[in-house]
Amino acid sequence: MSIFSGLDEIVETDYPLAKRTWYGLGGPADYLIRPQTVEQLKEVVQRCSENKIPIYVMGFGSNLLISDDGLRAAVIKLEAGQFAQTQFNLSEAGLTAWAGVELSRVVLTCVQKGLSGLEALTGIPGSVGGAIKMNAGGNFGDIGAAVETVTLMDAQGSVFEKSKPELVFDYRRTNITAKFILNAQLKLNAADPEQIMRTVKEIWIYKKNNQPLNTKNSGCIFK
Ligand SMILES: Cc1cc2nc3c(=O)[nH]c(=O)nc-3n(C[C@H](O)[C@H](O)[C@H](O)COP(=O)(O)OP(=O)(O)OC[C@H]3O[C@@H](n4cnc5c(N)ncnc54)[C@H](O)[C@@H]3O)c2cc1C
After folding, report:
1. Inter-CA distances, 192 with 11, 110, 113, 116, 188, Å
2. What is the pLDDT of residue 208?
3. How close is the Cα of 5 to the center of ligand 1, in Å?
4. Which of 63, 107, 208 gets mutated to test ligand 1 (max ligand atoms within 8 A of its CB)?
5. Boundaries of CATH 3.30.465.10 in the chain?
6. What is the pLDDT of the chain when averaged over all its residues?
7. What was the pLDDT predicted at 214?
8. What DSSP string runs through the chain?
9. Is-contact 152 162, C-beta < 8 A?
10. Which end of the chain is more exposed for a tag (fewer CB within 10 A), N or C?
11. Has the ipTM of the complex gone over 0.90?
12. CA gap 26, 15 in Å, rounded
């Protein structure tokens, strides 16, 4: 019986990671796995643990440099199914964003719904999971300012939450050490959608003047 039998739909073998990184770099991973649910992710983690397969987590691959030798490991991408959801609680200006949602989509949906707080993420490529891990942001703020609670899974498959003030965000880092960020609860502010859109446009213009956004580039190399 193969290591991931019964999970064939979400497991690809000998997968060229260059196809999934911003820079188009990276050799093959032994396994690329895209679970659709938290339960499936638990199952994958358990099988990796039983078979001593190292795990790497990948978001949209916009902050990753992977060797041409690839990875003798399972690379797990939380991008589909449950991990692609956003759940709004408009009466409390709250949003639960799952790890695989694209940042630009969250920013624009918040504009439409009249929720302010994520404009600083305009123009940053990535997923919610990657943005939280890196505390993505810039001159106008960072995602950490809006995060109240994160739901995490450790390398043994246990799911738990971490909230502020225990949860700390700093310059391009957090104190999250758990293997997986599953989702984040964000606290935003109700505001006029037109005003939020104006701010998004201003930040976009600022970025365009500082980075060639219409070409493949590396943003600013800051670490
Ligand atoms: C053109 C360009 C412009 C950029 N501009 C900015 C900018 O203005 N500000 C800024 O902060 N960054 C910027 N970046 C860097 C990058 O976009 C951010 O770091 C982004 O948050 C990475 O998200 P990702 O989903 O691509 O993560 P990845 O690159 O896939 O992963 C980054 C890290 O997060 C971890 N990770 C990803 N998802 C999860 C998860 N669900 N659970 C646990 N760990 C996870 C990975 O293991 C890895 O350690 C830029 C990059 C480019 C290429």
Report:
1. 44, 11, 9, 8, 13
2. 85
3. 31
4. 63
5. 85-210
6. 95
7. 67
8. --TTTT-GGGEEEEEEGGGGSTTS---EEEEEE--SSHHHHHHHHHHHHHTT--EEEESSSTT----TT-EEEEEEE--SGGGG-EEEEGGGTEEEEETTSBHHHHHHHHHHHTEES-GGGTT--SBHHHHHHHT-EETTEEGGGGEEEEEEE-TTS-EEEEETTTS-EETTEES--SSEEEEEEEE-EE--HHHHHHHHHHHHHHHHHHS-TTS--------
9. yes
10. N
11. yes
12. 10
Answer whether 142's CB lies under 8 Å from 136's CB.
Answer: yes
**Pocket lined around ligand 1, Cβ cut-off 6 Å:** 22, 57-64, 78, 99, 124-127, 129-131, 133-134, 136-138, 172, 180-181, 217-219
Q: Whose CA is nearest to atom 6 of ligand 1?
A: 124
Residue type, 117: G
Q: Tens digit of pLDDT for each residue in 67-110?
A: 999 999 999 999 999 999 999 999 999 999 999 999 999 999 99
Q: Which CATH number fits domain 85-210: 3.40.190.10, 3.30.1850.10, 3.20.20.140, 3.30.465.10?
A: 3.30.465.10
Token pair 């073998």 in the structure block, residue: 13
8-81: CATH architecture: 2-Layer Sandwich (3.30)
